Amino acid sequence: MCPLHTFSSVARSHNFAASAVSRRQQFLIRSLGGVRGSAPSRRMAAGVTNLNSLGLEADAGSILKRITPPLDSGLHKGQAGKIAVIGGCREYTGAPYFAAISALKIGADLSHVFCTKDAAPVIKSYSPELIVHPVLEESYSISLVVAEVKKWMERFDCLVVGQVLEGTHFSWLDCISEIMRHARQSNIPIVVDGDGLFLVTNNLGLIAGYSLAVLTPNVNEYKRLVEKVLGRNADDQDAAEQLLSLSRSVGGATILRKGNADLISDGETVSVVSAFGSPRRCGGQGDILSGSVAVFSSWARQQISEHSERLNFSSSNPMVLGCIAGSALLRKAASLAFAENKRATLTTDIIESLGASLEEICPAK
Ligand SMILES: NC(=O)C1=CN([C@@H]2O[C@H](COP(=O)(O)OP(=O)(O)OC[C@H]3O[C@@H](n4cnc5c(N)ncnc54)[C@H](O)[C@@H]3O)[C@@H](O)[C@H]2O)[C@@H](O)CC1
Ligand SMILES: Nc1ncnc2c1ncn2[C@@H]1O[C@H](COP(=O)(O)OP(=O)(O)OP(=O)(O)O)[C@@H](O)[C@H]1O
Ligand SMILES: [Mg+2]
């Protein structure tokens, strides 16, 4: 029940150069491929649940410790992170709230939400901490909506795009495409989730070759992405190999395949986070994850730019490190929340456990 020892018990040493890790992983993944076509019992051995035995488990506790910045009285508001979530409509107000509030609970200083006009007062009422912009306004032209978001864009360390854009007659997807293009030109990282994945699956050029993009598909979203990009069915037997190939096919964007074990690849390395979280599968946990990945990848980017010579991470890609950290923290928080609430565990309980979970790994003092 204590995920902190889960971290240490599953942790493996990745303290060697990223290229060596990458070479070893290529070897392991080739071995996975070698299992294909053999007897069913051996094929099962390559399934997601057994990836640990191949040494792909990330040293998540160590990564979390090294990328989380110390609390420093010399810092100004905003220096620990400014995140924007773009999404939220009349039918769905929970998902963007979960992502945005999770970013704050982990330690970002500012969290904005850009949503539809009717979603805005609802999201504001959940929390006065969030800065809510009702810019997805049906009477606005696409260029006006994009201009409203662009006014703020340069201030953000990361955008989370795509939580619930459906359910309106206005074509938000065109707006989001424009916003993503602008973010990319400005080198702002983008975490793509939910309906953003629907958009990207049908417009791969939006993220192709952008190393600061992260896609966080759930089981259904992954299935559609694999079918579209690789023309194959999603595969559990050769999961690591398939994810590596998928990420390469989209030019090295990082992909976090959510599930029983979370798999992460940027086309160079594959990492697994499988520490046990919670058996409750209440909706909204993926939204916590996308807000968490936004914060941790921003922190990893900063740490790498300032201290790359002494960090010695298993991957030099901050988006990969952010995914590993986000996934591990979510699982730990889910575990704490479940220990307390059992069957009644909800996403809001998991959000309330984020602070205590991070505190166990990186104490504030
Ligand atoms: N409290 C809330 O407001 C919550 C809202 N949520 C949102 O609810 C929506 C549904 O998510 P679920 O995870 O339940 O559903 P699924 O796991 O079925 O996946 C739905 C996703 O697939 C995409 N999609 C739907 N039809 C498609 C098609 N024909 N071809 C390709 N892609 C298609 C959608 O854009 C959506 O992103 C998402 O937008 C999600 O973000 C969830 O995050 C849970 C909490
Ligand atoms: N079968 C599972 N066992 C354990 N953990 C899981 C399982 N499936 C998902 N998770 C965890 O829950 C997190 C959210 O994944 P999930 O598949 O629920 O996303 P989602 O469907 O996008 O969620 P959301 O309801 O927010 O849209 C993952 O990061 C993973 O850690
Ligand atoms: Mg989701």
Q: What is the mean pLDDT? A: 86
Full CATH superfamily name: Ribokinase
Q: Span between N and C termini?
A: 25 Å
Helical stretch tally: 14
Can you tell me the CATH topology? UDP-N-acetylmuramoyl-L-alanine:D-glutamate ligase
How many domains make up the coordinates? 1
Q: Largest beta sheet: what is the strand line-up?
A: 3-2-1-4-5-6-7-8-9
The gross shape turns out to be: globular
Radius of gyration: 19 Å
The name of the CATH architecture is 3-Layer(aba) Sandwich
- Main CATH class: Alpha Beta
Structural features, described:
Its EC number is 4.2.1.93. This is ATP-dependent (S)-NAD(P)H-hydrate dehydratase. Belongs to the NnrD/CARKD family. Strands 3-2-1-4-5-6-7-8-9 form a 9-stranded mixed β-sheet, sandwiched between helices. The two termini are 25 Å apart. α7 packs parallel to α8, α9 runs parallel beside α10 and α12 packs across α13. It has one domain: Ribokinase (UDP-N-acetylmuramoyl-L-alanine:D-glutamate ligase). Helix content is 50%, strand content 11%. The relative contact order is 0.16. By secondary structure, it is an alpha/beta fold. It has 14 helices and 9 strands. The structure holds ligand NAX, adenosine-5'-triphosphate and magnesium ion (MG).
